[in-house]
Each structure stands twice: as structure tokens, then as C-alpha cells.
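Researcher: For the annotation table, I need C-alpha cells for (2Fe-2S)-binding protein. Please keep the output clean. Sequence:
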Amino acid sequence: MIMLNVNGKDHQLEVAPDVPLLWVIREQLKITGTKYGCGLSLCGACTVLVDGKATRSCVTPVSEVAGKKVVTVEGLKEGLGERLRLAWTEEEVPQCGYCQPGQIMAAAALLGETPEPDDAQIDAAMSGNLCRCGTYPRIRRAIHRAARMTPERSES
Ligand code: FES
Ligand code: FES
């Protein structure tokens, strides 16, 4: 039995300790915003926050996150989550959209640690999140926009 807190809710799960967190989130909890891409920690599509840190859920055994706070894109709601959602919408970031939950979670981890990152800090923090559609310039603009927003409303 493993205790898992996902998006503020506690779950008790009968699951082998080495099962990747991604499968527990998607298959057992049926929270499907987090995507499977490479399964090898190479693309970032599966990124979630674990105690605020960007974490590749495809290679993280569920036992490693027992007792920690896991947040998926569905759980990123108030404050920073709202700013990111607005900024992503206003910059029209997504193309096919597949990579975007992982991109947003990586951006959330960045802004959680560095509230006003410069281009180099954004590029360094986001370099592990691949986008086949090439939305990188819009992602960068959206992160700057989210950083400039007050928590209550967008700048525009
Ligand atoms: S699916 Fe986890 S990094 Fe690609
Ligand atoms: S928006 Fe299509 S992979 Fe990034």
C-alpha cells in the first residue's frame, strides 16, 4: 500500500513500488493531462511537480514520491497556475498541444524558484522539454508574460 498525494488529494494505492509514477497517475487515478512521450526521461512530456520540483514521472518509481506532494497540470490552479494559463492563452503557445502540459509544469517549477527569469535562465530550465511543433519562442514569451503578471490579472 502506497500513500500518494496528487493535486491535494490523498490516495491509498495497491501498487508495486517500482511502477512509474506516470502510469499510476494516468492508469490508476485516470488523470490524463500528463503525457507519455519517450518513457526515457528525454522529452519532458511527462513532467509533474514533486514538492515543487519538475520531475519526469515516466522514470520515477511511485515509491519515491510516497508522502510527497505531486501536482499535475490539472492541479495547477490558483496563483501561478492561473498566470501561466492566461499567458499561454494570450501568446497562443500550443500547436498540436501534446508537449504543453509538460512545458507548463516545467515553467511552473522555474517561476516557483526564479520569479523573473531572463532568456538564458528560461532556456536552461526548459531545454529538457522538447516540442516537435517548435513552439519554443512562444513558450519563452509566455513565461516572461506570466512573470510580469500580478496574481490577479494579466498585464494586457
Ligand atoms: S515521457 Fe518522460 S521524459 Fe519523455
Ligand atoms: S505543441 Fe506539438 S509537440 Fe509541442
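Researcher: And a one-line annotation?
Model: The chain has a mean pLDDT of 95.
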